[in-house]
Amino acid sequence: MDSSTPGPDIIDRARAAVSERAELPGMSLFEHLDELRRRLIHSAVALVVGYLVAVVFAPQLYSLMQAPLNRIGIQLNFTHPADLVNLRYIQIPLVGAAILASPYILFQLWLFIAPGLYQREKRFVIPFMASAVGLFLSGALLGYYFVFPGMLKFLIIDLSHNLGVHPIISVEEYTSFFFSLILGMGATFELPVVIFFLAMFGVVSPRFLWKNFRYAILIIFIIVEIITPSPDIPTQFAFAIPMLLLYIISIAVAWWVHPERHKIKEKSA
Questions:
Q1: I need a surface site. Which of 5, 82, 207, 253 has the fewest CB within 10 A?
Q2: What is the pLDDT of residues 174-226, one digit of tens each?
Q3: Which of 94-103, 161-170, 234-243 has the largest mean confidence?
Q4: What's the rounded Cα separation, in Å, for the pair 172 and 53?
Q5: Which region holds residue 129: left if phi is over 0, alpha if psi is between -120 and 50, else beta?
Q6: CB 175 within 8 A of CB 87
Q7: Burial of residue 261, with CB atoms counted within 10 A of its CB: 0-12 exposed, 13-18 middle, 19 or more buried
């Protein structure tokens, strides 16, 4: 069947990929469970270390969060006595710990799935690590320096002046809004990494991605409409173009790692 066919065929290919790798010589079920336990423990230790580092630098991290509001002259407020305790010792350190420990956790993830990979696939560990961390940071920085300030200006300055109301923003609500957008932008930029695995396992193909390019454009502009409330066309395209480029990069990544390319290469050798 054509690998570009959408719908249930994707599920069938995913099942086939899992079944194929289950037959590879490697660890037993109990060895896999023991390996999972080991990787989870290592990741938990990394999170604890990241938390200890982040809790020390929480005031500096808060200053980075407050900076976009300072530029538009807005002061945060808190409505519950425990809000600042939650911010200082829970929210900021936990998010900081997750970001600091993420490269090590990603490496633990790779070590866990490595026994289910072919030898030619294991050499992708360095591109996987570099792209996963780099793309997340790129998305988060784009959100912090461009998307988030633009949203604040539109939502707080433009709309409040237009409606004649005074903004009173609580630290709890601002923190949740800040983290959801910044981390969401970082996660969105992980699209090539997700496609990397789906293509490597044969679940999607470059032809499938290219055939559904028009649907990808539609979905991207819907996402852009949500994360950029400014209605002007240049702003919409300023954020849609990087996401479209990521999708095109994903097609190239799929071509690079898809099993069919390696089979053709081996036959022609």
A1: 82
A2: 998 899 888 888 888 888 888 888 888 778 888 888 988 898 889 888 877 77
A3: 94-103
A4: 22
A5: alpha
A6: yes
A7: middle
Ordered DSSP codes for 124-186:
THHHHHHHHHHHHHHHHHHIIIIIHHHHHIIIIIIHHHHHT-----BHHHHHHHHHHHHHHHH
Rounded Cα–Cα distance for residues 3 and 209 (Å): 10
d(CA 147, CA 138): 12
In this prediction, residue 4 carries a pLDDT of: 45
- Percent of the chain that is helix, strand, coil (3-state, to 5): 80, 0, 20
Tell me, what's the pLDDT at 50?
96
Q: How far is CA 31 from CA 38, 116, 173, in A?
A: 10, 13, 44
Q: What is the DSSP letter of 115?
A: G
- Torsion sign across C-alpha atoms 202, 204, 207, 208: positive
Which pair of structure tokens corresponds to residue 43? Answer: 């990741």
**Alpha carbon distance 56, 61 (integer Å):** 10
* 98 pLDDT higher than 80: yes
